Amino acid sequence: MQVTLLGTNGWFDTATGNTPCVLVETKDWTVIFDAGYGFAKIDQYAVSEKPAYLFLSHFHYDHLIGFHTLAKNNFSAGLKIIGMSGVRQALKDYFDGRFTITLDALSYPVSIHEFDEIQADLPFKIEALPLIHSGPVLGFRLQADGATLAYVTDTGYCANAINLARNADLVLLECSLPNGDSSTEWPHLTPRQAGKIAREANAKQMALIHFDGWRYQTFAQREEAAQFARLEFPHAIAGRDGMSFTLDK
Ligand SMILES: [Zn+2]
Ligand SMILES: [Zn+2]
Questions:
Q1: What's the pTM value of the predicted model, to 2 decimals?
Q2: Domain encompassing residue 99
């Protein structure tokens, strides 16, 4: 399993990165987490003729805005967009012709599915658990090619974040807040809280993602955050756009 971070900012793009998107290439499938503006770079990577599955954590714009670039990609074996209950309704207006290219005008088939409806039919094992945020949000745990990846973003500290990351080969954890900052109006994580989750889950590796574009403006600030995370979990690193991980057994 090859995991590439295409977008590691939260909220908005800056010189340090794009908004969230993670590309996972497995032997037989392409799996994508979220469609922030990092999604616009996916055609620079080896998106092959494999069937593609895109899992949405929630519907905040920083996780959807990259859908605007669907037309520059060619998922020739089809793209399935999978989200929480209500995903079809949530994306209905988004894909309206007034705002972007419509799905039926794309050169490849795209379909939209609720996670609970499609989970049993997916060709790989993936779990979703609710996290805590300003509204509903899902975290994911993917098992493929003998490796386990957890994708946990837009959440405060909670038991489900730990459950998703349990013994994972890699957990991607959000880091919207600087160390010691609890001033957020919406639940998010500080680097130490992210480190605590990785430690309590007994994860093997952890990378911080979803650095708030306003609070984290430099790579030096990201590295400082990783140092705080390492007080809890020694293997924590600061994610960057373009960073890649090979997980194998
Ligand atoms: Zn976000
Ligand atoms: Zn959010």
A1: 0.97
A2: 2-246
